[in-house]
Design goal:
disordered N terminus; about 0% helix; about 350 residues; 2 domains; mainly beta; Pectate Lyase C-like; ten-stranded parallel beta sheet; eight-stranded parallel beta sheet; single chain
């Protein structure tokens, strides 16, 4: 048996590749003395891992086996070593990874370090009858929480593919927090766009939806949002971007839509307001809310302190939508060089105020 303790670095090793430590490998199984392996492709499901040796030949490791869990350690075991020459690169590791090849040519990789790259669009399912120990990949094995689906997606490399989180009817009582994404794909949290009140995110003393310093493309649609005791409806902060489609805002203890610190919330489809809050739009510190050419339907006469409060260089762009219905409360309070543009004073409510450079039109 031969022990290879001295590995030579590859100067041009891309970020998504990983060096693998080689130990106790029979050199006869590969026909040459290996010094370093460079992972070139690695996918969990039915894909191939190509490993390039410093000598010849190359090694192709096929067919991922199910992950096994030993105590707190979860590993993927790769089997089926054979010759190969492909040098396509599509793997992505979340952190610098190490792995061992054993005497049988098997490679063991820490699953926590492996980021699976999508090769097609994917759907995860969530239901109130589900379990977060399910895989979420079918309506028959859904996750229990929306957050579990988001956490699972955030561990992927989306590449150019999109993910839909299909949320079944019912009430979900935990905060939904977006996470940074890898890749150019879009993640859509999709409830019931025809009747958003069938899918309710309802929290107590907590925000319903939070986008905090999140990179990536998220869309939220088909849900009713409400909070009690305290908590915002949608809270976006620190340069996050959230697209919001057909939703319903029920009663919210604080503000229904918050955008702070250069975060952006884009309202992209018709939506409904059926409950009151301290504010509908709460925008400041360079944040912005952009309301597209949509209809905002207000049912009943919900009460707001201000329909829009904009401050410290925040911006509300609401000159395209149509507001149907009325509220009890003032239209706007715009201060500290912030702007609220409606072009025709179209916000619901009565009166409003500006100060310290704030502008309303």
């Amino acid at each position: 048996m031969t022990d290879f303790d001295h590995l030579r670095p590859i100067p041009t090793l891309p970020k998504f590749m990983s060096r693998l430590k080689v130990t106790d490998l029979d050199p006869l199984s590969v026909g040459t003395l290996p010094r370093l392996i460079e992972v070139q492709t690695a996918h969990k499901d039915g894909a191939t891992m190509m490993a390039h040796w410093t000598g010849n030949p190359q090694l192709s490791v096929n067919d991922f086996v199910e992950a096994r869990r030993d105590g707190n350690d979860s590993v993927w075991t790769v089997t089926g070593a054979s010759g190969g020459t492909s040098d396509d690169a599509s793997a992505n590791f979340k952190n610098p990874a190490t792995a061992d090849l054993d005497m049988d040519g098997n490679s063991v990789i820490d699953a926590d370090n492996l980021r699976v790259a999508l090769t097609a669009n994917r759907t995860y399912y969530v239901a109130t009858t589900g379990s977060d120990s399910n895989d979420g990949l079918s309506s028959g094995s859904p996750f229990l929480t929306i957050q579990k689906a988001i956490d699972t997606v955030a561990a992927l490399d989306l590449s150019t593919y999109d993910v839909t989180i299909d949320v079944g009817n019912g009430t979900y009582t935990a905060t939904v927090t977006t996470k940074a994404l890898v890749g150019a794909g879009t993640v859509t949290i999709d409830g019931d766009t025809s009747t958003p009140s069938n899918v309710v995110i309802s929290t107590t003393s907590a925000d319903a939806v939070r986008a905090w310093h999140t990179t990536g493309n998220y869309t939220l649609q088909g849900v009713k949002i409400q909070t009690t005791t305290s908590g915002h409806g949608i809270y976006a902060d620190n340069q996050s971007i959230l697209n919001v489609g057909a939703v319903e805002f029920g009663a919210v203890a604080n503000s229904q839509i918050v955008a702070l610190n250069q975060a952006t919330v884009k309202m992209t489809a018709n939506y409904t307001i059926s409950g009151g809050a301290t504010r509908h739009y709460d925008v400041g510190v360079g944040g912005q809310v952009v309301v597209g050419s949509v209809t905002v339907t207000i049912s009943g006469t919900p009460t707001f302190t201000h329909f829009a409060i904009v401050y410290d260089q925040g911006a509300v762009s609401a000159y395209l939508p149509t507001f149907s219905g009325s509220i009890t409360g003032t239209k706007y309070n715009v201060t500290m060089n912030a702007t609220c543009r409606t072009d025709s004073d179209k916000l619901p409510g009565t009166g409003g105020s500006t100060a310290t450079g704030g502008q309303y039109s």
